[in-house]
From TrEMBL, chain A:
It comes from the Bacteria. Residues 124-134 have a biased composition (Pro residues). It holds the Pfam family Emfourin. InterPro entries: Emfourin. This is Uncharacterized protein. Residues 68-80 have a biased composition (Gly residues). Residues 60-81, 117-142 are annotated as: Disordered. It comes from Parafrankia soli.
Automatic annotation (TrEMBL), chain B:
PANTHER family: NEUTRAL METALLOPROTEINASE, PTHR43579. Extracellular zinc metalloprotease. Residues 100-181 form the Peptidase M4 domain. Residues 12-35 form the Protealysin N-terminal propeptide domain. It is an enzyme of class 3 (hydrolase). The lineage of its organism: Bacteria, Bacillati, Actinomycetota, Actinomycetes, Frankiales. One of its GO terms (biological process) is proteolysis. This is Neutral metalloproteinase. Its EC number is 3.4.24.-.
Length: 142, 353
């Protein structure tokens, strides 16, 4: 494991994330022997109050700290082995969003949120154009 | 595994070191370059050992008699993510009531027997390494993986995926990752990563064909046969015969594996699409196997296996460099007919040799 990689962005230039209002948490899972991305998500606006509170609490552990670095560390590099999952968790809140990438085995502190999101409804694949193809005989850019 | 690969510097994969060397600050770059230099020296030892093996290798596949046969241990994680879990069946033990345990035990045995019978290989490291697998990993975990030391199998969600021990080719696939790691350490990224995945599909499928005694024409060439539940519109995770046709399901999506370089997918996900672009070398292998006919492990598989072991194969190998390695091995091991068939197979997927 190679440590943290926080890809979070804060339009407000930093400061603790404001999770008191509506938040949306999206899990994208890549890799695995299947190789298919899976996208799931939860929105506090669509949850009962107690479940919304649980989601806020778990999301707060991910976004803690002024620059997001105080939460459980994201893991940017791949571990040894093959066919492991890579998880990208995105927390959208009023005034910003934080995105963290975790390679298996994920840190203990992230597991409760991951477990919750793994049971969330599936979402459509991330919008955007299909991946481009290279010409015959080409090779991917490294 | 050989001892020199257990060193601490090797814990960081080469592609990560390269990334740090490229993007890190001066101190990080210096440390990464130092580690890469050490790793290169380890590679030199591996190349030397491979050369020695090739010199000592007889013209026909060796039929080694391992001192003790497979040494299997099956652990039960009991839906946790703790590895290796509680040992529930060890070598020589009678079958237990848990079908996943028995499938893992039998699958490891079939994979061990395949590599020994077909290529004289004594386990993952060709030195009698014990085979460890853990079943019931995680909560409805939809995956199987190789963690660098052992195989791990989830139970699936029960909605789209059955338990991952249900497919012998998946068990063979995971164990083959250990063989590839031992022989070539192919970087798990882009084309070398797709080759890594393809080699696991190739040997995973050959394990199944070997157990069933099937010829190339008789085999189904499916990876993950039986893994998808009846709720999924599909037959498997991948088809080596017809990449891109294994499933087309409203929930799971459609199989987007290409069968030709024209369809090579550039993506940043899945380590550069290692499970997607593996369709291209998979199709090349299938094409060769059918062209040569008979048992695919005898000629096509042997060529692929020896190409994997060739000292010229670099961790950052491309489809083209691996294709060249297979062509060389076909020439060395067999003759002009097989060599031309190898070149034709690669040409058919847009990879010139």
């Amino acid at each position: 494991m190679t440590g943290d990689r926080n890809t979070g962005s804060r339009p407000d230039g930093g400061g603790p994330a404001d999770l008191a209002g509506r938040i949306r948490v999206i899990l994208e899972r890549y890799g695995g022997i299947i190789g298919r991305p899976v996208r799931r998500g939860l929105d506090t606006a669509q949850l009962p109050a107690d479940q919304a509170a649980t989601l806020r609490s778990l999301a707060a552990s991910l976004t803690a700290g002024p620059d997001g670095t105080a939460g459980p560390g994201g893991t940017g590099g791949g571990p040894a082995g093959a066919d492991r999952f890579v998880y990208v968790i995105e927390v959208e809140f009023q005034g910003g969003r934080v995105e963290r990438t975790f390679h298996e085995p994920v840190p203990e502190g992230v597991r409760p949120l991951l477990t919750l999101l793994s049971r969330a409804p599936r979402l459509p694949a991330r919008p955007g154009p299909p991946p481009p193809s290279s010409p015959a005989g080409g090779s991917p850019r490294r | 595994m050989t001892g020199h690969r257990r060193c601490a510097p090797c814990a960081v994969p080469p592609h990560i070191l390269e990334r740090i060397a490229r993007n890190g600050n001066d101190e990080q770059r210096a440390r990464a370059l130092s580690t890469m230099a050490q790793d290169s020296s380890h590679r030199s030892v591996r190349v030397h050992n491979a050369l020695m093996r090739s010199v000592q290798r007889p013209a026909t596949p060796p039929r080694l008699a391992p001192t003790s046969g497979p040494r299997r241990t099956i652990g039960d994680a009991k839906e946790s993510e703790d590895l290796p879990g509680t040992t529930v069946r060890a070598e020589g033990d009678a079958p237990v009531a848990d079908v996943a345990v028995n499938e893992a035990y039998d699958g490891l045995g079939a994979t061990f027997a395949f590599f020994l019978d077909a290529y004289g290989r004594d386990s993952v490291d060709d030195d009698g390494m014990g085979l460890l697998a853990t079943v019931h990993y995680g909560d409805h975990y939809e995956n199987a993986f190789w963690n660098g030391r052992q195989m791990v199998f989830g139970d699936g969600d029960g909605e789209l995926f059955n338990r991952f021990t249900v497919s012998l080719d998946i068990i063979g696939h995971e164990l083959a990752h250990g063989v590839t790691e031992d022989e070539a350490q192919l970087m798990y990224l882009n084309q070398s990563g797709a080759l890594n995945e393809s080699l696991s599909d190739v040997f995973g499928s050959l394990v199944k064909q070997h157990l069933r005694g099937q010829t190339a024409e008789e085999a189904d060439w499916l990876i993950g046969e039986g893994l998808l539940t009846d709720a999924v519109q599909g037959v498997a995770l991948r088809s080596m015969k017809e990449p891109g046709t294994a499933y087309d399901d409203p929930v799971l999506g459609d199989d987007i594996q290409p069968a030709h370089m024209d369809g090579y997918v550039r993506t940043t996900t899945d380590n550069g699409g290692v499970h997607i672009n593996s369709g291209i070398p998979n199709k090349a292998f299938y094409t060769l196997a059918v062209a040569l006919g008979g048992h695919a492990w005898e000629r096509a598989g042997r060529i692929w296996y020896e190409a994997l072991r060739a000292p010229q194969l670099r961790p950052n190998a491309t489809f083209r460099s691996f294709a060249a390695a297979t062509s060389r091995q076909a020439q060395v091991l067999f003759g002009p007919e097989e060599t031309q068939a190898v070149r034709d197979a690669w040409a058919s997927v847009g990879v010139p040799v």
